[in-house]
Protein 1
Amino acid sequence: MLSAVFALVMLVAMTLMTALLVWFRLSSVLAVSQSIQKQLICAEIRMHELTRLQQQFDQRLDELASDVLNRDIYQANDHRHQQAIDSAREGMSSRALRQMHGLSSDEADLLLTMHASEKHSPQTTGVED
């Protein structure tokens, strides 16, 4: 009888140990599941932010494209660049080139570098915009 009680106690102990192992495994799986859920929420938030930024980028790109078309920078045969080159050769400043001929600052600086006469060159006058 004592051995039957001992065997029953051992069986109960093994069942409890198995139950505890299963409980610990479930707890760790639950913790990993919650961590993954938090990561997914963060990823979703970032995806929404990226989508918003992409839409802003697309909108700005459309605005710039329409600005280019409206300014006729690359379409009209109005000799605008030749007039800007002539103005650079006459000693016009970068700021004046930008304002008068609708150039970007890079375009104006490039024209001055390539076409400004020695006496009007920004390097010789020491004046920059």
Protein 2
Amino acid sequence: MAVAIVALIVVGSVSVVFGSTWSQERVASEPEPAAAGSEAAFVEDYLRRAVGEDYLETSDRAEIARFLRRELGLQSELLELSGLVPTRVEICLLEGRRGAMVVYRLDGERVTHYLVPKRAEDRPPRVAREHGALAVVTWASSTIEEALVGQVSPDTLLQLARDGVSE
């Protein structure tokens, strides 16, 4: 399967890959980064690009679950809610951490569920912020940080998160 370019949607920050002309100008005008900083840049690029399969277009919940297990070792259940239809799963990179985003459709609107393996304290779902029509709800368990992002009401996302949280 051909490797596609992964669009990273990051709450609060967006990583953008610029053309080579801009990169050359940047390299010429900026001082060289410290060795540790350059190593981190190589690791981030590797994690973003060197994956066997970085996305999967499907509404098959079993296939999406296999993708999450294979690519990230996640045993997480998909959200099982009336009207919520999965359409895609893909690898994402958030603040240097490799995770996944499952894209759903709910009443014609896109709702994205981020799953990022990370040691965290349990946190119940809460509305994190609104950006115009875009709402964000976050929560965490001891092993995974999660978020729902979409152009639906914050109350709808909050209810989806509460109903979909695994025990």
Protein 3
Amino acid sequence: MAEHFEITMIEMDDVKYKNISQCLDGYWEKPWAELPEEQRQAWHLALGPIRGDDDKDGKEWDGRDAKAIIAANYDAVHEPAFTSARLVGWYDFTIDAKTWFDMENIKPKEAAMLMCQISPLDDVDPELIFVDDDKTSPDRYRLLLRVFEDKLSVPPEPRTLKQWRSIAQERGLRYHSWIDEYLQAIGITDDTASDLTATTEAAPELGTKTLNSSKIADIVDDEQDKTLADLFDPVTKESLEKMFPANGKWTTWAEHARANGLIEARKQRRLFNPYLAALWFLQRGVDDWDLARCNRVLAKNLPERSKDEAYKLTGDLK
């Protein structure tokens, strides 16, 4: 039987998080007196609020050989990419989350159990189980199941776990928060999220694109998009992380591409079309990113065969 533990997501602005290890890299051997203020503050942060306040004169810094380990431990707990990866890994291990989200036909009882953080594979009676101090209860399970069974008959069609979740949200039903945290971590946005409109600044002839679909195929609906996608060769998730930094989240997103829709940008095993991946990335609603900025980054990363066609992305005719 799977154990039920609650994992708390650390709310943090992914874009603004500064990796402590990277900040201190190159300074490990320098004495405290030579450290710039930014590096001193980073060290105090890694030590923690109590120990950091006690090290204003740098004794902990000058007297330690394992400074890099302290910084790495802090990043492992606080960096958004790491917290997301741990959360995803935990639920993939304890409740087989990835497997269930990849399935195309989840039965009402399976959906109701999963939304109560109970594995349908466990030999348990969901009508007798309370999870995480009443975050889900037998009454909530029974209500979810009854609504799902009713929905199944009108019309009778296969539904994914994400679709069952949408039904629960539409009906205002309560369910365990794990499922929302997991979807957020693997890069799935709510179907009901407000539209994200991205406008190209440098190339007005490219117009505006409304990115409010969970499927790339629904966004790439004209020949111009397909032409732009054809300018690129497939790249790895590591290359996508360099082009569109997300604090390492491209790894988790790529591993769950089938569930979050990124699979439609995947052209070969573990390789993705950068243009289609950029459209998907914009749906995340990442601060300071719009279609114009994505196109400028894409133009700088064109393969040799397409460099003369960069103007198609930027509108900059030379």
